[in-house]
Every structure is written in C-alpha cells, then in structure tokens.
Amino acid sequence: MGLVWRFRSDLIGSGDVQMLRESEGQLRVRSRDLTLEAIERGHLLLARVGGNIFPVRSHTENVELFFTVSVIALAIRAFFFQPFSIPTNSMWPTYGGMTSEISTAMDRTPLDNFAYGARTYDIISPVSGIVSIAINGGVDAAKQKSLLHYTGFRKWRFGIFPMHFRRYELFVDGVAVPIEVPADFNIEQLLVRKFFPHITSNRIADVLNVHSPEFHHGRRLLGTGVHVEASKVFFSFEIIHGDIILVNRFITHFLPPRRGDAVVFATRYVPNLHPADLYYIKRLVAKAGDILSIDEDMLYANGKLANFSWPMLCNNRKVPPYRGYFPFGSFENQMPIAVEKGNVFVMGDNSRDSYDSRYFGAIPVGAIVGKPFLHVYPFLAAAHAYAGNSRLKKKYAMHRIIHLWDRLIGND
To answer: Which of 17, 68, 109 is closest to 380 using CA atoms?
Structure first.
C-alpha cells in the first residue's frame, strides 16, 4: 500500500486516499490476527486504485525486460562488437571459411565434430540404380547463376536467427534424393570430386564438356555412371563451419586501421564490387599514397617488402601453408599500383583464391566497419590447417596469443 500511496496519491480521489490510509492503519495494528476478509478488502482496493503498480503484471515486466535487453544487444552489435561468420577461404590459413571433406568412414567423435564445427551428412539411396545430378539449362543457369539446380529456403536457428539454405537434388533411378546445405557452401566441387574424380578442375562446366546431360521425368539430369544399392549410404561428407569471429566496431572510430590489419568492410560502399550488400574480410596491405608491386610472389610497398604483420611475413617467405602473393588481376601487367587518396588496398592472405582489390580496386576508408578482435568458434578450425606439423602448430598458437594481446593493449 505504501508503494501505491507514494506513486499514485495525486491521481486517485480523496475518498480512495482516505480508505487507503484507514486500511494501512488497520493492517499495521492487526498484522498478527488478520482475517481473510480484511485481506480481500485490501486487495480489491489496491487493484482498483493501483494502476500499473498493483497488481504486479509479470507479462508486462517480461516484455519490458526483453525490450531493454534487445536494445542493449543491438547497441553493442552496432557500435561495439559484432559476430561475423567467414564463408570463404580467401583469408586462409589465418581465418578459415566453410570447407568440406568426403569420407567413407568418419573417424571423428561427436566431441571432435563440435570442436571443429563439423556436421556430417550421410546420403542414403532409396532404391538401387545409377546416380544422376539435377542441373540447369541455359535460362535457369543464368537466373540462378549456377549449373546445379537448387531451391532456396530459410531455417530459423534457435527460433531467432534466420539461416539461408539450398536444396539440391540427386536422382537414383528417377527417384529424387534431396541434399540440404548452407547457401554459402560450394557443393559443386564436392559433387565433382565424388562422382567425377578424373575432372581435376572440380567444375561442373568441365564435366559437361565430357558428359552430355539427358532429360528424364521432365528434368535435365547429368548421369554419373555410379551404381548404388538401396537403403545404403552412397555419399558421406562433412561440412566444416567457417570461423566465427567478433569484429571490434568501436576501435575504428578512434584508431584507423593500420597496414597489416585484417579488416571487415561493407561491400555496398565499394563502387566496383558486387553483390552490394555483404561484408568481406581482407587484409589492409597499403594506404593512400603507397605504391604496390608483386615480384616473385612477394609483395612490395614503396620498394620494400610489405611485412606489416605476421601473416604478411609468412606469405612473403612462403612459410607453409602460406603460399605467397600471386600477381593476378591488376598486377598481371607487372606494373606498380598507386593507391589513391581516401582509399586503402586490401588483399586476402590466400591470394591465389581471393577476390580482392586486385579485381575490384582499392576501397574507401569509410567502407571499413571494424577489425577482427577474437576468434570465437569453431575451436580447432583454423589450427586444422596445420595438422601433422607440430612445429607450425606451436607457432600458430603463439601467434594467436600475441595477436590477441596486441589487440587488447592497442598495439595492433
């Protein structure tokens, strides 16, 4: 009653005020021998004049709590730290993207799969017969930008986070066998490695140069010549999740990225880059006014080796598994490149398989949204690149410790 009195005494009538005073006084005097009738009268009075204070509404409080937590979480994501999942291997081996492994007998335990961020797929044949792959014709291939036919859809992770998937189809004797994988996953290379191992490029386009598709049941199917038995697993593979990192968005408001930093930038601010609404992670290798060149797989800035960070040093020295810098894209003519004012030049650590400034040009400084701060998950995905080499594993572990410490104290 005291709470209602303090917060609503100016909103309720004089008669109700008097009744509140009397009820409070009676409760104080008769606190030891209260009757059920007196308690009910007090409850009815408080319910009538208590407004939002009484009775306590747990639903309202939960909604307010959820709203407050959501606002705080969005503020942290927008201005401080944002999770970022790396889909490709352009920064391998510093950061790993989504990869796959074909296997006939999985040798990892469930705990191993969790540590590596791996998910196992066992594809079972419903009938016996020859395996075929559903592919697109000219119009559909141009529309879906894929020779493999698929259906896109979304799933909700934990009922909150939307995730995009694609459903591809294999056929066994005309019976469809769907395979659902993340939309970012390149299943084309996996299928070619499994069913056409003699095609070294791992591209369906090159398979079609050798094998002609056929039409069955109104579909364009590419026969593999592989016979499978009913109710048996004929295709087993793992998809290893790309690294999930925390991006520090706050630090870039005060300390601009330096040469050698890994940076995350928004593609919508880069004029020559499509698609235009994604986030890329690359390494900043040069700033405005710098002159870049590549000679014998080594990157030079202003005539000197560009050893601005540990991965750049490893690339220039070709310390396995780093493979050096490849003169692709704008470096193919062997001419130096000057970075214009207001821009920075970014490249992937895996420069042989990276789509970066060599192709779409330098990016505006304002396109950078943050720097990687902490590798979150999978726990062993990046270290997997060093499997079988204990010396490099130790170097990698030491680098990650020094790398995190430098970021914490602001030396990076």
So the answer is: 109
